[in-house]
Amino acid sequence: MRRRLFLGAGATLAAAPFAATAQHAGHGPALRPAPSSPHPFHNLFQGGAPHHLTPDQRAQRVSASPAPAGTPGRWVARADMPIPRSEMAWATAWNGRMHVVGGYGEGQVNRAYHTVYDPASDSWLDAAPLPRGANHVAVAADAGRVYALGGFIEQNRRCDDKAFAYEVAEDRWREIAPLPRPRGAAAAVVLAGKLHLIGGATDPAQERASIGWHEVYDPATDRWEIRKALPGARDHVGCVADGGLIHVVGGRFNTFQYNTGLHHVYLPQRDTWEERAPLPTPRSGHGMVVHRGRFFCMGGEGGIIERGQTREAKVFGQMESYDPASDAWQSHAPMTTPRHAVAAVSIGDWIYVAGGGAVLGGAVQSAIHEAFTLG
């Protein structure tokens, strides 16, 4: 009841001030308000019908971390997403707002959604949709643009090479040079004004093999280059750029049955990779952000699905953070609602974690949105 009352207040906030304020805050054209979903969960295989988690599904949640305890921090409910979604993979922030692109929703897996969260008013907006729908689209933001790279057209398979740039000031997408090779569930980060696209999975759909490909896009020339491949090809990783380096953490080898805690760092001056301290809880489909000089990883999934039956199913709620100066991990207060394939960004003093899968696999989407702070 607390969540629904809270969201009702958030919906009221969204209805009035946005049309008047969006253009005056450096965000470009005014976007349409998008009220929060009245249902926290939808079932993909029931046409997006409202869903209530069963006791067995709730039992999939795990939160215990083997990492030493750090500052606990706390989680607070924020305005839920307009539509329960998952497999966005992942989210990005620009000018104090979170952009969430594509994913599963309303009973389909190839959605072109583009929703924007504004922390200042705790409300959501609808922005120009992707030119085509997809899931597991890699996203990153830089210089007033949000980039959307690759993705799957079917459920976690049949990838494409489409690449788009969204002009925030114009609320408009344009197509850019396609990926050199099609893939989905890759990681995208910006380093020194260029986009690095790392890892992921590719066709044929029947095999859906993880890859270690590392390609770099230069917006100034609209061209791609090949760089040193990621050791230990994998997808659904966590990835951040910090201090002139790129960190790739966790992920899976082909399937979440084979999760890993591997942690590699890319050194651009040498075009090579080195290992660092592994993620304490091996997982894939987790969020990862830079916050207060540390790298925070939250959520994820693991287990086995055979012929529609799940075994050893886990939806992770662990919040673990890494200190690049000491090459060490610690744990914090776990997520209130464990999820995987979440939208996660750091804005100001908060880490915002929206949507995601509530059970192992893609069956149940979530609109739940919770924020974490150390303060």
General description of the model:
This protein is mainly beta. It has a single domain, classed as Neuraminidase, CATH 2.120.10. The protein is built from three helices and 36 strands. Strands 2, 3, 5, 34, 35 and 36 form a six-stranded antiparallel beta sheet that branches. β6 and β7 form a beta hairpin. The longest helix has 14 residues. It starts with a helix and ends with a strand. The N terminus is likely disordered.
What's the helix count?
3
- According to CATH, what is the class? Mainly Beta
What's the CATH topology name? Neuraminidase
Residues in β-strands, percent: 35-45%
What value does the average pLDDT take?
Answer: 92
The level of helicity is under 10%
CATH architecture annotation: 6 Propeller
Radius of gyration: 19 Å
Low-confidence stretches: 1-24
Quick one: CATH superfamily? Kelch-type beta propeller
What is the domain total for the residues?
1
Major beta sheet summary: 6 strands, antiparallel
The counted number of beta strands is: 36
Distance between the termini: 26 Å
Summing up helix and strand content along with how strands pair, one would put the structural category as mainly beta
Q: What is the approximate shape?
A: globular
